[in-house]
Amino acid sequence: MHWTRFGGVGLTLLAVGCSGDKAPSVGNEPVQQSLRLEEFAACSDLEQYIEDTASKQMRAGLEQQKPGFWERFGRNRGIDLDGAPPMAEGDASSGGGSPQGPKDSTGTNNQVEGVHESDFVQNDGTRIFVLSGNHLYAHRSWPAEQLTLAGSLEVEGWPREMLLDEHQRLVIVSQVRQGLPGIPSSGGYYVGDGAPMPMYDCAGFGFRCGYYAADSTKVTTVDVSDLANPQVVDQVYLPGLFTQARRVDSSVRLVLSDAFRWPEGVKTWVPYSEDLYKNEGKLEKAIDEQIALNEKLIRANTLDQWLPAGKHVDAAGVTTSLPVTCSDFYRSNAPSALGFVTVASLDLDAQSAAPGRTSLVAEPGTVYASKDSLYLAHSHYWWWPEPGQKDFTYVHKFDTRQPGRAVYAGSGTVEGVPVNQFALDEYEGVLRLATTVTTRLPEVDHEDWWWGRTTTASRVTTMGVKNGQLKELGRSADLAEGERIYSARFVGPRGYIVTFLQVDPLFTFDLSDPANPHKVGELKVPGFSTYLHPVGDHHLLTMGVHTDANGGCCGERSLKLSLFDVSDLANPKEAFTQLVGTAYGWSEALYEHKAFNYFPAKGLVAIPFTDYAPRTYGGDDYWNGFRTELRVFRVDLEAGISPVGALSMTDMFQRVQTPDWTWYYTPDVRRSVMADDYVYAISDAGVRVSKVNSLQTPLVTTRFPKLVNP
């Protein structure tokens, strides 16, 4: 082995394995209940850990291909349920436009007040910035009747999201390909002979596979004080792929992960030949030989090959390397798939070009941030399924009060898995987590179901840091057996979760005593909610799907907005419901909270909406029933939810001889901005504005150039 000083961020590998009569060399490891992160004493220790874990995962993947391996594991033979894992003890300036902006306007729908989340749209009331294709488009948006596309900037790579601060700086995150060494285990490639081979053939789609072809993240800081001439003032390249970003004041935190890069020559299978696969003895020997060859290649790799360096490019174009010492890296004492996750901290007001980095050997998982803390939650890693297993989540807390640095604060273990970032919340120093626990049961009466049945239950757990560890303070009783959490929200000392099977139970929680989080009320309604938005102190405005309570299919399905009255926690009520569209309707707001836009100053909510109206089969134009628009509704706590109208952008979807629209670049309305009495709809094709009382009559439309080979 070899080691050196290096720069780098993380790795992520998904591996599989199994168990049978013949004990595999890789065995399931117990859940770690005394979780902690540990520093590496030397670079040699870090390299040793990477290579040991890579070898273990490689073995697990190949051994499960041996003849009869899965069959020997089947039918729950030899499983001792008494050995099941233990239960957890105790997851501005107008830029040259009008000097006066609107009285009120909407921005990014952030989970936590004061913690700004990255998105591909940013707005400060008088300017709207949009990332589309490989360009930044800067708009002068106020007065609304004078909406103007003032300037644009080509962004290297595949732009993902950005953040705008109060000093006219945009921080743009894009994915780039720098040709890093090794063969990625995911992200658009498979491991085979020689050079990496792309899994996706993007020929004819008008772009180069999007960020699936990327191996690094670029952070570009742009001065947008002159909208007509955005100026790049700083560029940072870091190995790995962007996950999420947050900004508090001048401090930006980026969470990055990277696909594990195997040394060239490593194979995850034995090449097929009819003679080999008909002879079980030969096949098993060939697999053992491949394992030995793979391990030799893994052990020969150097640390700088595992973890390549980043770089910084200043405004003058001067490039410097960004080395990171091995002491910046931590490993968990719990089993995990090999992966490094990096929290990169940028202080926009500091003179230093190098971001502070804290990296840990773990999978990226769920990211939640408060004003003072950042949490990373990832699942316990089971190598293969066995009856008796439960879901567990490992949670790591970082103190982010110091600009430019994330300081490790403690770790803990919780039963279950959070559905998304809204299942975590910090209040008065206490972390609250809503998790669904899946337990794998044996199915002795059905031999074909060798993996066993599963059952689910959900709960709320509270945790706090004690003596350097994140300890459980209390947990609620289990609820909703057989269902799982679809959405969650915590508001001060209250909590709300929604589970689903055929009806949508909304559960209310009293969390005022961290040692005794408990359910207070429950309400069942048809369908389910995927997003919960607090309105005032005693109401929830929710986005979800209406379904037939009796299990009916597509004819009963539609999107729905609901207003719940939770003033009495013991007796929550669905005060009003508004169904939206047909059974084929869809909205990005179902799974992306940044697409949900509530404007409390005017009592309005806007959601992007796409639908396919019925059409005659055999017609020439498949898209003749396609429509995409921004649906706007009025929300009144007394009168309910009522439609205001729709701002359509269907006409901006143009069919041409070569398809300009792809999974990465779509015609759908995706975001919106509301300012006083005006509504802006935003798609990859452009921006359109109307008055709220005449949405069907656009005032101004800006159009972006068609995307061609970014």
Key phrases:
single chain, six-stranded antiparallel β-sheet, disordered N terminus, seven-stranded mixed β-sheet, mainly beta, 45 strands, 710 residues
Give a topology summary.
Layout: E1 37-39, H1 43-63, H2 69-73, E2 116-117, E3 121-123, E4 127-132, E5 135-140, E6 148-154, E7 158-164, E8 169-176, E9 183-184, E10 189-190, E11 197-198, E12 216-223, E13 231-239, E14 241-248, E15 251-257, E16 261-262, H3 274-278, H4 280-300, H5 303-306, E17 310-314, E18 319-322, E19 329-332, E20 340-347, E21 356-361, E22 366-369, E23 373-379, E24 392-399, E25 407-415, E26 424-427, E27 430-441, E28 453-466, E29 469-475, E30 484-491, E31 494-500, E32 503-510, E33 518-526, E34 528-535, E35 539-546, E36 558-565, E37 573-580, E38 597-599, E39 604-612, E40 626-636, E41 640-648, E42 669-675, E43 678-683, E44 686-691, E45 700-703
Parallel strand pairs: 19-21
Antiparallel strand pairs: 1-19, 2-14, 3-4, 4-5, 5-6, 7-8, 8-12, 9-16, 10-11, 12-13, 13-17, 14-15, 15-20, 17-18, 20-21, 22-23, 23-24, 24-25, 26-27, 27-28, 28-29, 30-31, 31-32, 32-33, 34-35, 35-36, 36-37, 38-39, 39-40, 40-41, 42-43, 43-44, 44-45
Helix pairs in contact: 1-4
What report would you give on this structure?
The chain is mostly beta strands and 710 residues long. It has 5 helices and 45 strands. A hairpin with a 2-residue loop joins strand 31 and strand 32. Helix 1 runs antiparallel to helix 4.
